Amino acid sequence: MSSDLQDQDYTDELEHDEELWNxxxxxxxxxxxxxxxxxxxxxxxxxTIVSNATGCMEVVSTPYPESAWGTSYxxxxxxxxxxxxxxxxxxxxxxDRRDPDHLDVExxxxxNIIAIGGDGxxxxxxxxxxxxxxxxxxxxxxxxxxxxxxxxTGVQRSSQTPFGASTTTSPAGEESIxxxxxxxxxxxxxxxxxxxYAATASISNPHDFKQKVEKALDIEGPKFLHVYxxxxxxxxxxxxxxxxxxxxxVKTGLFPVxxxxxxxxxxxxxxxxxxxxxxxxxxxxxxxxxFKDDEDGEQAIQELQEWIDGRAEDLGLDA
Amino acid sequence: xxDTQDPYEDLKITTGVVAEPNTSRANKTxxxxxLKPVVDPDTCIECGQCETYCPDQAAKxxxxxxFYAFDLDYCKGCGICADVCPxxxxxxxxxxx
Amino acid sequence: xxxxxxxxxxxxxxxxxxxKGTSAVAKGVMAADPDVVSAYPITPQxxxxxxxxxxxxxxxxxxxxxxxxxxxxxxxxxxxASAAGARAFSATSSQGLKLMSEPLFTAAGMRLxxxxxxxxxxxxxxxxxxxxxxxxxxxxxxxxLQFHAEDVQEAIxxxxxxFRVAEQVNLPALSNFDGxxxxxxxxxxxxxSEEEVSEFLPPRDPEYTLDPSDPKTMGAYARPEHWxxxxxxxxxxxxxxxEVWADAVExxxxxFGRDYTEYGGMLDTYYADDADxxxxxxxxxxxxxxNVVDAYREDGEKVGLVRPRVFRPFPAPELRDxxxxxESVAVLTKEMSPGYESAFAGEIKGAxxxxxxxxxxxxxxxxxxxxxxxxEDIAEIVEDVKTASPEMGFKESESWPQLRPExxxxxxxx
Lengths: 319, 97, 414
Known about the structure:
The structure holds three protein chains of three kinds.
Chain A: H1 3-6, H2 32-44, E1 48-52, H3 56-61, E2 72-75, H4 81-98, E3 112-118, H5 119-124, H6 127-136, E4 141-146, E5 172-173, E6 176-177, H7 186-191, E7 197-202, H8 206-217, E8 223-228, H9 232-235, H10 242-251, E9 258-261, E10 264-268, H11 278-281, H12 295-315
Helix pairs in contact in A: 2-8, 4-6
Chain B: E1 35-39, H1 49-53, E2 59-61, E3 68-70, H2 80-84, E4 90-94
Chain C: E1 17-20, H1 21-32, E2 36-38, H2 46-57, E3 64-66, H3 71-83, E4 88-92, H4 94-99, H5 101-109, E5 115-120, H6 134-138, E6 145-148, H7 152-169, E7 173-178, E8 186-189, H8 194-200, E9 217-218, H9 224-256, E10 267-270, E11 277-280, H10 285-298, E12 303-308, E13 310-312, H11 316-323, E14 328-333, H12 343-352, E15 361-365, H13 375-385, H14 394-397, E16 398-399
Parallel strand pairs in C: 2-3, 2-4, 4-5, 5-7, 6-7, 11-12, 11-14, 14-15, 15-16
Antiparallel strand pairs in C: 1-8, 6-13, 10-12
Helix pairs in contact in C: 1-2, 1-7, 3-5, 7-9, 8-9, 10-13, 11-12
């Protein structure tokens, strides 16, 4: 290593534009959800109020007196990001009626109210608040960032933990292959509430991700985005591979990318030559017990593959 | 009563513990690193993938130059940039003390 | 009014209407013109929610009415709305109050002045829809302001006072009124108009809001080196509330002509000045107690009533003053604290710990889950409290006078 490369430091010559999600946050190196926050705020812009659930993103971004957020932001508790957002929306509806100049934006229709929560905060403990918000038709975008476990408290199993994953509350062991349920289908659940737009996106395709955030924000009513954001620490993989693993999750069909509008599937990112799920499982320490060369592991992988195949067929995922 | 350790001086607790925006920048996460990215300026094609995929906004174009480099105040050394770079212009090296 | 015997019904004066308690409270809320009303039905509060939605549907109340899925989300939506700068109102009882306890405590910590009317009702289990104070006391330590109304008029007025004080000190407020006894009764009351209320209640002027033109981060987490001080701020706000409340009731009297200014609005007393035996109680039971006081006074006996109007911040100095010189004090309470004496008794006794004058205190747990308390029951208690002495042991100092030992296995072993 030549000494001038070792000494390379252009820090002072780099321009940091005004960012609505700022560096200095305390997310782990290679954090998938941190990228999701970046994409959401880039797509949404500054006319945005974020309602964030307790969880990794909230904790790494708001240790008083610091905040990584450039947008208006509120965190209340773990399970009510959706209803806090609904309350904000109701307040602005009232302000719009009483005092149209209340908000210093050209058109208060441009105000983006975005609720953000992890998979645990959204699909599990926050389910009630989310369902109520969607059912009542609030003009709120809910983004669920999915790292497939309660990560902030140390990798406990959630309803989004994949089949066969070892977590601290679904550990692999002599009598266990790890988590024994498949991911709960939040898009169908959201769509069944009659909301205008529900879609999935992965941090491995930022263009698609941001486009969907923009599209959602242009629609009036409740919107739901399920975004995939791998966690190097919780899944046990090298932090450099975060994007690879997000991409593999899509390519193997574990995380299909599609949109539902008014209850119908309107777009599917089809996969040509869908890869077997082992491609995605293999690099992750949380699945290493499945490769121990025994029947249970093989069977578990097969079950997971069958689940993926079934969903792929339902969605028309294969090109 | 013994003193409570507090890294912040001259702090007043705001009503409802409300924090000011963009203040995380005070926290230089670059100190976390074990590996740091170095770029070969000649190999870099300025595609911007490193900037897109950096979770800490630490990869940026260098003003007045034709390559990207790294904000070592915040770079945590995750290695995503090196992984996504299409021309392998970035190498992760162990940081010397 | 908690009267066991038929009384002469007051004729409403010109500026009063006779209406159901829940409707009256709803109309009071309407006059305060909240931006957001978010509430879930629960007996016996349901009438408040129904009336409010009726007023919205008829275009009389210009609020966003959120038909929430649960009390938990009633509180959560109020929090979001209040953080955005809105005036937010909810109403609940019992199980609903318990369910919203988690977010409600955070409203205090985040200094959001949401106001809720609580129709007090027992907490399960067993399930009971009837009135007592278990629900309010269970939220005691949350940092919410708490008031107790004696009648329907106060139920309305306390809501208006709550908005005023809550918005000034930035704490949430629970405006308590007894379930069924005050919710389902028809009483004459004056419903203030929106014009009058706007004279009394200025628009909200929050320090921080959710506003993209001036973004802030609300709800940051606090580390050990900062949390204590943030909670101390709540304590300071509570202490400030004493003066703010005192000013508010003065102005309330000026605007509406109803005088709650005794003891800075903290206590309402009836023949307590020279009383030998004082009854202390909160809420609607005070109405019955007044009749008993009148009867004793007619007989030449000096009995009096001290009714705390404000429960949080707790009126300790005022109680020390009002109870000084009494020979004995009877605390009547519609709650209990398993494992110890009732919470209300504990608080009263605690207040007198530093007093120069420390009359012996006996406490009486009664009226729970709507069990009727008649004037003769209270008279029996007065007779009993005459036996109170400083040498009383702990077991003698609290009793459950309405307890029916015949229902208990093995009989009554108090």
